[in-house]
UniProtKB/TrEMBL annotation:
<keyword id="KW-0963">Cytoplasm</keyword>
<dbReference type="Pfam" id="PF01135">
    <property type="entry name" value="PCMT"/>
</dbReference>
<feature type="active site">
    <location>
        <position position="64"/>
    </location>
</feature>
<keyword id="KW-0489">Methyltransferase</keyword>
<comment type="function">
    <text>Catalyzes the methyl esterification of L-isoaspartyl residues in peptides and proteins that result from spontaneous decomposition of normal L-aspartyl and L-asparaginyl residues. It plays a role in the repair and/or degradation of damaged proteins.</text>
</comment>
<dbReference type="InterPro" id="IPR029063">
    <property type="entry name" value="SAM-dependent_MTases_sf"/>
</dbReference>
<keyword id="KW-0808">Transferase</keyword>
<dbReference type="GO" id="GO:0032259">
    <property type="term" value="P:methylation"/>
</dbReference>
<keyword id="KW-0949">S-adenosyl-L-methionine</keyword>
<dbReference type="InterPro" id="IPR000682">
    <property type="entry name" value="PCMT"/>
</dbReference>
<comment type="similarity">
    <text>Belongs to the methyltransferase superfamily. L-isoaspartyl/D-aspartyl protein methyltransferase family.</text>
</comment>
<dbReference type="GO" id="GO:0004719">
    <property type="term" value="F:protein-L-isoaspartate (D-aspartate) O-methyltransferase activity"/>
</dbReference>
<protein>
    <recommendedName>
        <fullName>Protein-L-isoaspartate O-methyltransferase</fullName>
        <ecNumber>2.1.1.77</ecNumber>
    </recommendedName>
</protein>
């Protein structure tokens, strides 16, 4: 599959739609204009890649809806060279958006099939993630901590303590909290000091579940 001016036009339209839906961070909108989402989908979905919808990516998982990706990316308040940890690499689209926004991205995926496919795809598309890891996102990446921000892209029944511990003071954790088959509440935790976190809840979303110790 190739990237063409037709795709570029569709990306511009998608970015405009996200702006209408309330995304204001120009860094996020520029990244949506840049990253070829159709190359993150199976070729059968190419024609739909620039609709504001989630799609299956194999292993029972989905690439998140562009609005959700943009919304979470905006909540992260990414600054250039920020160290960002992503839980749930999936297709790699969110990874690519964060990379386009200037972040140094670390990402964890627990489905081997997706980890392998995405680890091959990202370099081909010029996306140089700092570190892609196969493992359990509940544990984070203690060897690479602390992070300026952490984004969880699967619905989490609880807020994992290790992720809180791996945030810098002043850092932000963006996590949809709620059980399997429920809506999740998008939650922002801002680390105030060693022990205190400020919590904000900013709307309902639906994600595939964040799984622990099972495949
Ligand atoms: N950011 C992805 C979203 C994929 S859906 C994208 O843009 O395509 C969520 C992903 O989280 C799935 O790939 C799923 O396998 C993964 N996941 C679920 N539980 C996980 C866990 N405990 N650790 C790491 N990844 C997990």
């Amino acid at each position: 599959m190739k990237d063409t001016s037709k795709h570029q036009g569709l990306r511009n339209q998608l970015a405009n739609l996200l702006e209408q839906k309330g995304i204001t961070d120009t860094n996020v909108l520029e990244a949506v204009r840049k990253v070829p989402r159709h190359l993150f989908l199976n070729s059968g979905f190419e024609d739909y890649a620039y609709q504001d919808k989630p799609f299956p990516i194999g292993a029972g998982q989905t690439i998140s809806q562009p609005y959700t990706v943009a919304y979470q990316s905006q909540l992260l308040q990414v600054k250039k060279d920020d160290k960002v940890l992503e839980i749930g690499t999936g297709s790699g689209y969110q990874t690519a958006i964060l990379h386009a926004m200037g972040a140094k991205v670390y990402s964890i995926e627990r489905q081997l099939e997706l980890f392998k496919a995405t680890s091959l795809l990202l370099p081909k598309l010029g996306v140089r993630a700092k570190h892609l890891s196969f493992g359990d996102g509940y544990k984070g990446l203690p060897n690479f901590a602390p992070f300026d921000s952490i984004i969880v892209t699967a619905g989490a029944p609880i807020i994992p303590k290790p992720l809180m511990a791996q945030l810098k003071i002043g850092g932000r954790l963006i996590i949809p909290v709620g059980g399997e088959n429920q809506v999740q509440i998008m939650t922002i935790l801002i680390r105030k000091d060693e022990t205190r976190f400020e919590k904000h809840e900013v709307g309902e979303f639906r994600f595939v579940p964040m799984l622990e110790n099972k495949n």
